[in-house]
Amino acid sequence: MKKIVLLLLFFVGALVACSDRKAAAIGENLYFERGCASCHARDDSYSVAPSWKGLYGSEVRLNDGSSVTADEAYLLESILVPTAKIVEGYAPGSMPPNGLTQAEAKQLVEYIKTLR
Q1: Across-strand partners of 42?
Q2: What is the pLDDT of residues 82-103, one digit of tens each?
Q3: Beta partners for 59?
Q4: Would you say residue 112 has pLDDT above 60?
Q5: Which CATH number belongs to the domain containing residue 78 in this structure?
Q6: How many structural domains comprise the chain?
Q7: Cα gap 114→116, rounded to integer Å
Q8: 15, 35, 11, 13: which is closest to 23 by C-alpha?
Q9: DSSP conformation letters of 10-58
Q10: Distance in angstroms between the alpha carbons of the first and the last residue of the chain
């Protein structure tokens, strides 16, 4: 019985990892198709908006002087409601409305997680 449970846990973990990789690949396509690449770099190069490289899990300083961890909740909110929390050094309204769905935003977040 213990072996069956362990085997099931292994397969569930493999399915989740596969699902996350697929979502990240779709997110990468969205990065280009929806114009994110126009402003957000995915490396250390200069861009007009915060870089996505190393963003996931990092501390982000906001215009109001507070800081937030760039976790899934923060990234989803920032994508779906760009004016909710403004990154230090950027003006409110810098990020235009993007029309992304919740599912597309989640795929972008999965992609952002891969940019270490």
Answers
A1: none
A2: 999 999 999 998 998 899 999 9
A3: 69
A4: yes
A5: 1.10.760.10
A6: 1
A7: 6
A8: 15
A9: HHHHHHHHHHHHHHHHHHHHHHHHTSGGGT--SSSS--SS---TT-TTS
A10: 39
Alpha-carbon gap, residue 35 to 116, rounded angstroms: 21
More confident residue, 13 or 4: 4
- 28's tokens: 């990468």
**Residue 12 pLDDT exceeds 70:** no
Q: Which residue has the higher pLDDT, 55 or 9?
A: 55
Which DSSP letter does residue 69 get? E
Count CB atoms within 10 A of the CB of residue 98. 15
In the chain, count H helices and then E strands.
Answer: 3, 2
Which domain range does residue 10 map to? 2-114
What are the structure tokens assigned to 30, written together? 């969205």
Q: Which structure tokens are listed for 96?
A: 């235009």
Structure tokens at 18: 């596969």
Task: With H, G, I as helix, E, B as strand and everything else as coil, classify residue 100.
Answer: coil
The DSSP output letter for 3 is H
